[in-house]
Amino acid sequence: MKQLTFLLLVLLLPSCSVEDDSAPLFIEPIYVNNPTFKLKLDIIYVLPNEKYAKSKYNIDESKYLDYLNGCFFNRHDIGIVLGESRTLVNPELYDLKDDRGNESAIFERETKGTCKPDRLNMYIIPRTNTIAIAGLGVTQRTLITDEFLFKTTSPHEIGHSLGLHHLDVDGNIMSRVKPYLRKEFNSEQVSELIQQIITINNR
Ligand SMILES: [Zn+2]
């Protein structure tokens, strides 16, 4: 039987629940030197006003890239490289809890002018400023709440922002069921990711 018959549901939902990753599986990192398919990632810290700096978040960016590359991407010959580390002052996006139910629409609207087409744009907001979401992924734009950076929410939302839909198969990164089992992309998804990376790099 074809693998497709086992796919229970392939849905594109705008957000992923905050129950994600309550007890994440340990994933043995695999690093590859100079992977073939490189994707630039900008980390964009969302701030409420000009008085704050990105240090408000206290995130170790190189450790984060190591997490993404070692646990999820290098094993598929994909390398995420840091583009720019920047900030966005945007009180509406920062306080996303004020817009419950419209998180995805607000995210798209408020980031329109600041995302760059030749890379992946990752926006970070405090987990405490949302109610129901751990992260969001729309075309080339990812929103991750800070407490979920080092969880499978990150590759899951990056997957969405590179065109992957939900695939509710145990263990798959794009699954919404048993999020604690999320571990890997399947070969079809890897091909899609690589195609999308090639497209982005040609922009
Ligand atoms: Zn999702």
From TrEMBL:
Keyword check for Signal: yes
Statement: the UniProt record of this protein carries the keyword Plastid: no
InterPro entries with a match to the protein in the record: MetalloPept_cat_dom_sf (IPR024079)
Domain of life: Bacteria
Leader sequence residues: 1-19
The species this protein was found in: Aquimarina aggregata
Name listed for the protein in its UniProt record: Peptidase M10 metallopeptidase domain-containing protein
MF (Gene Ontology): metallopeptidase activity
Record's keyword terms, sorted: Signal
